[in-house]
Structure formats: C-alpha cells, structure tokens
Amino acid sequence: MHTGTYFDIDWTRDGKFVGFAGFPYSIDRSPYYQIKVPVCRIRNGEGASIVLMAGNHGDEYEGELTLLKLIRLVEAADIKGAITILPAANLPAVMAARRCSPFDGGNMNRVFPGNPAGLPTQRIAWFIEHEVLPRHDVLLDIHSGGTSMDHLVCSLMETSREAERDAKALKLLKAMAMPYGIIADNGRDSPTSMAAALRSGCIGLSGEFGGGGTVTPRTMALTGRAVDNLLLALGITRRRYVSVEEARPTETQIVTQGPQTLFVYAEREGWFEPAVDIGDMVEEGQVAGWLHDLERPLEAPLELRFRAGGIVLTRRLHTHSQSGDTLINIAQLG
Ligand SMILES: [Zn+2]
C-alpha cells in the first residue's frame, strides 16, 4: 500500500491499452491517494519500440497536446512494433501548470535515476528509468522553454561516446527534420531523461519545441512533424497522424551548446529589455539587452553584451529578473 507502483498494462500483449501507473502518496485530502500517471501502450507484433514522453516539466504543452492527439488517432492495427505514450509524465506538475511538482518541488529532469521509495517525482523517474525505458529501443522526451522562456525549435541528442549508438541517434535526429538540432554532452551520470535512456540501453532523443507556457500553430506543426517523422523512420507507422508532409523536407542545422560564455545572466535584480530575439545571429561584443531598474528612475540601464557569437537559442520571457536568471542563451553553429 505504501510502496511500489501499481501498473497493470502487460508489456507483451498486442493491442491498445490506456491505463495508469499509480504511485502511492498519502496526503491530507486522501490518506491512500495515488498519483495516477496516464500511460498508453500500443503494440502489434515484433518491430521497433519507442517511448513518447511529455510533461516531464508540467508547463511545456507542445508535447502534451501532440501526444494526446496521437493516443486518440493510432490503433494497434496501424503499427508494427510498439509505442508507449506518457503524455503527462510528472502528472502533479502538469496539473499545477508548473515546471516542478507541487508535492515535493521535484524537477523530474534533475532526479533520474530516481528512488523507488522516495518522494513522488523520484518514484515516477525510477519507474520510467527502470520499468519503461529498458523495454524500448528509443525515447523521445518532448520539452520546450516552459512558462519563463521562449526557445528556438530544436531537436536534441546527447553524445554517448559509442560511435554506433551516436550514428543511429544522429540519423534519427535528422529524420525528425527540425530546423535546428542540438548535440549536447552531459555524460551518462547526469540526472536527465537522456542519461536515463543511455543507462537503459535506449537511444535518447529530445527537443525544445517552443515555450512561453503556451502553444502556437507553428510549434504544434513542428512537434507533430518531429513525432510523425520519427515513427515513420523507425518503421512503426506507415502514415502521418499529427502533421502534414513538407513540400521539401527541412535539413537540420546542427548547433552546439557549450561554455558559460554562451549565456547572458542577470547579476543583479532588474527589468530586462532584450535587444535580440530567438533565431537572430549575433556577434561577440554585440548588445544583448538592457537591465533597467524601476526603483532608480534616473539611473542608466545596465548594458549587457554577448561574450561570444552564435545563434540566439533562448530568451527569458519574464521581464523582472533576479541575479542568476538566464536572460539569453546562444548556441554555436556546426
Ligand atoms: Zn522541459
């Protein structure tokens, strides 16, 4: 009753099943409460298998809505292999419309490999890394900038330093046909879903598909395209479900996230006015923006400059900023 996960979907059965993974968490309103994380499993014989996940952060809606559509549209007879869909992985965070869980403050993408007897976010992460991922070939974990950030639409993979695995991941990343693709390098011990995939023997793919705690026709179109393209590339589906085909497929421009010089941080409280927008190309020394001080009207704003050149990947959406907030992050091409 107080430990373990309640999960009754049979991984080996063919068909389409929608159920829950239940995580016990005793609260004031309900002593035997269970966090019921929705899980959809669609399987039809042997073939490639993929986990499609959103809601790792609760306020990133592009993936959450795209995966709901997919659950409604795809039937077992349509596919070859298996699709496991987690549209709201950290359900308490999703229900609270927040990045982190209101129960324990947990940021799920910082708690992998989790803990089977820990706080709710740790238990869900443990279930995903140990119960779900090892049964699959590929993970696509769909992110965006969330409420506080706008993000250039990018697919993402991490280098594993295993040549064959990285070549497969890069091929799938390019198949997603996003305008930009980030190759990150955080190592296999990192607390993220990408390292969880690596530890589970699964190819990890991710992406940032917009932000601002909302969705737009463009970000939904790109997210749908990434999901459909990946399912088609793996031979799991035979047609598109959540996107339309491009007249001419997009070729992904690879970008790299690197040192701290690529970040513009606030180093004191202020109200940030950006001088550039996401997707802009910038040069070292160029003005990134100004930090105003509404408590000191006569004081000139602090001018912030880029310490390196590149393409603007993210920008903070909340104008009010405190020391330590990332205002702008750039990436380098190639
Ligand atoms: Zn995220």
Structural write-up:
This protein has 334 residues and is an alpha+beta fold. The chain folds into two domains: 6-256, Zn peptidases (Aminopeptidase, 3-Layer(aba) Sandwich), CATH 3.40.630.10; 260-333, RNA polymerase II/Efflux pump adaptor protein, barrel-sandwich hybrid domain (OB fold (Dihydrolipoamide Acetyltransferase, E2P), Beta Barrel), CATH 2.40.50.100. The protein has helices at residues 61-73, 91-95, 120-132, 163-175, 193-199, 217-233, and strands at residues 6-7, 15-24, 34-44, 49-53, 81-86, 138-143, 149-151, 154-158, 180-184, 203-208, 253-256, 263-265, 270-274, 281-282, 287-292, 302-305, 310-316, 320-321, 326-333. The strands form two sheets. It has a 15-stranded mixed beta sheet that branches. Strands 16-15-13-18 form a four-stranded antiparallel beta sheet, with no helix packed on it. The longest helix is centred in the C-terminal third of the chain and has 17 residues, at 217-233. The protein is globular. Zinc ion binds at residues 56-57, 60, 143, 146. Zinc ion (ZN) binds at residues 56-57, 60, 143, 146.
